[in-house]
Amino acid sequence: MFKSCLNKLQSSIEIMYSITLAMTCVYSCLNSSTYVCSLVICKDALRTSVNSMFPRIIAVACFVSRISTMIKNITDFPKYNHKIKEYELYFPINVSQKSSRNIFIIFIGFAYISIILPLNIVRLYLIHHNNHKIEILIFFTTMYIQNWNICLIEIGFIARCFGLYQKFQIINEELAVMKTKTISKNKYPVVLRNEVHRDINSSQYHTLANSIELLRMKHQFVRGALRDLNKLYEIQLGSSLVFLFILVLFDIYGEVNAKDAKTRSKILIYGWILQYSFRCFAIIITSHLTTKQAYNTKMLLADINNRYLDKTTKEELDLFFDQIHRRSLEFTSCDIFTLHPHLITTAFATGTTYLVVLLRID
């Protein structure tokens, strides 16, 4: 009874927080040009629209991410968390793996805080020191709260993604042990082909087939969890990556064209570029390493399958390999683009092109 009331209270607070945050996003979009141009010189309509684009992009990305998360929090996230808890109940991870996961989450959280919080404090101090209007300070404070809300969603994805990475890693470690044992048994193929020895080792082959079947079921579950996680975060990740790409572009453009901006400095500009670049790398690299770990299973299966094994074990290996081969294990954003390191180089090339166009127009 108490737990049910606590869950309802938590749900109500989250809904109120989401509605309040959405209202601040709408407010930021409507008043962006007024407050930004009070700090930076806006000579014409183009410069006004470019300068006011920064808080509007953050507001739109925050609005989309928060609404998507709020909707999926009703049913999808609880179901996903329940499935993962059930899996870990049957196949628990050891203490060292738990500690490494906690260390990784703490590291990511600390990295986000250490990169973002000092920059925001310095910027708010400069705004307060050079412009004593409280409404401007409130406007930029809400903008940084919106940005931090997006960061929390990104950290949530990275933490869950690393959890799947560990599960794939455990499966691959067990397969690597099987591979080593199989290679050891295949050192004397003439003996293994002998009918007498085959009868003696039949129970060992049967055990190997059962072990591979269990690993196949575990891998199938984690693959399903990967697809579920992708569906849970595909909208949020898409909006985050697009928003981070555009902000890097506008920060570089603002640095080239910055004039008489007392509330901005080179340290802030470079710090913002570092922040957005780090967040892009953290999302893309974590996703890529997880999918790479999932695909590494195929190589281990191929190595085991090349050895002398009985028919049942061979069938299990073929079924396992076929299940991985048939379905993609990539993280995507609404099937528009794949979270892969190539995305970084593509974004860099595209950003350079648009930056040149902006500078020529200006």
Report on the architecture of this protein.
- With about 350 residues, this protein is mainly α.
- The protein is about 85% helix and about 0% strand.
- It is built from eleven helices and two strands.
- The chain has a two-stranded antiparallel ribbon.
- Helix 4 (about 95-130) runs antiparallel to helix 9 (about 265-305), helix 5 (about 135-185) packs antiparallel against helix 8 and helix 5 (about 135-185) packs parallel to helix 9.
- The protein is elongated, with a radius of gyration of 26 Å.
- The N and C termini lie far apart (about 65 Å).
Helix content: over 70%
**Overall pLDDT, averaged?**
80
Task: Give a quick account of the main beta sheet: strands, pairing sense, barrel closure.
Answer: 2 strands, antiparallel
**What is the number of strand segments?**
2
**Largest sheet: spatial strand order:** 1-2
| Elements, N to C (H/E) | HHHHHHHHHHEEH
C-alpha geometry: elongated
Our count of helices gives 11
Q: How many angstroms does the end-to-end distance come to?
A: 63 Å
Structural class assignment? mainly alpha
Beta fraction of the residues? Answer: under 5%
Unreliable sequence segments: 190-202
Whole-angstrom Rg: 26 Å
